[in-house]
Amino acid sequence: MKANRALSELIGQSSEHFASIDDVNLDNLMERIGDSRVVLLGESSHGTAEFYEMRARITKELIEKKGFTIVTAEADWTDAAHINHYIHGREQDALLQNKPFSRFPTWMWANQSMLEFTHWLHAYNTKIENAKTESSEQKVGLYGLDLYSLYSSIDRVLDYLQKVDPKTAEIVRGRYDCLIPWADDPALYGRAVMTEQHKSCEAEVLKNLQDLLKTELEHSKANEEQFFDAKQNAQLIANAERYYRTLYYAQNNSWNQRDQHMFDTLQAVLEFRGTQSKAVVWAHNSHLGDARATQMSTRGELNIGQLARQEYADKVYNIGFGTDHGTVAAASSWGGPMKIKQVQPSHVDSYERIFHKVAADNFLLPLRYPLHKDIRKKLLPERLERAIGVIYRPETELQSHYFYASLPAQFDEYIWFDNTRAVEALPKQREEGSFDTFPFGY
Fold it and tell me: What pLDDT score does 215 carry?
């Protein structure tokens, strides 16, 4: 169609082209981000290497040039805490915990791109520690936003209380025992409660959280960071119990609970790190693109992107990512093995097809501060947009992976890679002579 071809040409004129992630000049992007306190970095799949590598490149610039000290991710709190120990030089603390990112989908964070970024963060924090002119507050922390670590969070709360108050630890353990029968599959807890085969554990987990919060003044004085970690784990347990309890009868409500939890966790980390702290968020486009600009809103669903804009207005900068074709790491069903799959060329009625027709393979497209005055208006009408998660079903791609959205209303900027490759998953066991995968594997 002539109209789409003209739009692709306009996008080409309105975007900043680059040859490779290593060579891209991000100075203009940094200027557009300005004094934002929160920067959201999306992805249109959970298994595309370029998305991880570009997010790492942008995050490094935000850390070095704009003083960002918080990296948050759509990852479990306890797994991210393990990595946080490592990047702060506390390798022994990391070794005491179970290997992180060991549940499905392991490749989402235990991949080569993430490993390299983690080592960079470790080196950066070491440099800060060795520089007498720098404050330790300038060290970067990595935090998980998600709520799936129900049982490992229980372990972390009990470990903390066992150190500071063994008697309370036994009381808390007894209350958490209510959830133990469902350790292998927490989703079954929700079904058991719904069918009245098991009583709700809501009262027990909320009592534990309330009792822990009452000791904040006393325990946080001894070690503020350890108490904050225990408090966040206790909050996660309460939210996860509610999430699994409502999963079977209110799926849109469970989505909202999850994204509200992730946003509240982001808020808690920002508060903990201080009023001058600034945060980067790594998550899927579906969590970060403003839900009000997608068909999610018709289902009553919200997300981090919407909540962040409502809270921070123009002090949040929201960047989406997309691709046309290539390979992706994904499973065919939940809990299934990871496969390297071919990404189908984009649908003819999608945003991705219009971007594919641009005479450049890689580019940044500013939308809040457009380089061409007409680009936002031309892109505003709703079109199909693709979302690949940890599951990819190309045989039913239109039904399974496309939704309607207004891209310029979702994002402040969009980064395009026409041809992409799958992430390289780290081996589950370190083989003799292989590269070092610590802190992800050992």
Answer: 85
